[in-house]
Description:
CATH superfamily: L-arginine/glycine Amidinotransferase, Chain A
CATH architecture: 5-stranded Propeller
Number of domains: 1
Radius of gyration: 20 Å
Amino acid sequence: xxxxxxxxxxxxxxxxxxxxxxxxxxxxxxxxxxxxxxxxxxxxxxxxxxxxxxxxxxxxxxxxxxxxxxxxxxxxxxxxxxxxxxxxxxxxxxxxxxxxxxxxxxxxxxxxxxxxxxxxxxxxxxxxxxxxxxxxxxxxxxxxxxxxxxxxxxxxxxxxxxxxxxxxxxxxxxxxxxxxxxxxxxxxxxxxxxxxxxxxxxxxxxxxxxxxxxxxxxxxxxxxxxxxxxxxxxxxxxxxxxxxxxxxxxxxxxxxxxxxxxxxxxxxxxxxxxxxxxxxxxxxxxxxxxxxxxxxxxxxxxxxxxxxxxxxxxxxxxxxxxxxxxxxxxxxxxxxxxxxxxxxxxxxxxxxxxxxxxxxxxxxxxxxxxxxxxxxxxxxxxxxxxxx
Length: 388
């Protein structure tokens, strides 16, 4: 069944909540947030009923200056000569404006379902910054899920291996502080040095992520209660997995399942998607019987149909065609899905999942679908084991 929605009066508008916030003390701001129905962050999985979410902001987005970290994380499949042809600087104005329009539809749709929606702040990504070892400019605030991991009531800022993303989370720290003051734990992975030695060059003259320090992005991780699935790739190394594993030992009985040699470029959420307990969506180009995680073999699987694609605004898009399976579960029975993916929509509906077809016209160009551009900070689920 295709679902349409209208705005709900019960949803809290970010602008209403933020009005006058700059004149409040931290404690006053927390009280106001709480009175608006916003408390601690709490999210344990990818599918329980969604109550509160952060949506990305496309304004200011740009391709950062070329360095080995940007090459690895944005264009790891390009040769050195191809990389030299990539244009840096701001994305075309049309891409940004149309993306802003599409995100506004997403925001309105979620609010129409009663979900509280916040949005990451825009920032000047053209400003130069750096350390004694390197200089760069920024990237974007379009994909809030990329660098923030919510595990129960804990907010974890992860350590991206991409230099241009070093200060990206400043766009959401006003929200993280609010959640902390209302009960959440807020921690950050060790700030990485991102020295040249972290980035190796393989025999094909392409960059490879090394193991000099822990680095990983939150989008390398999928959550399913007490089980976390960590993809080792160009955006997350083994030391990042070990840091996460050791850190979580202090907070509960978690199991981290390492996924190796499945998809070595970046994130996991266009490869595996948890739809509800016992049902998973799998990318047939990357997952097969030899690398399917053992704990998922007892679950029912939907093998994702081929993706419908359109021409991109850039000759070097940041995502593959599989960004079309990057969906957002609003509940175990309802998904926000790329409207162009008709076969996927039919497959979901055959399995009892209603869909809300929406559009992100530049998902491939900017490198983010509906799962990427949202960060669920409050869901109804509890911390349980789904694989016992």
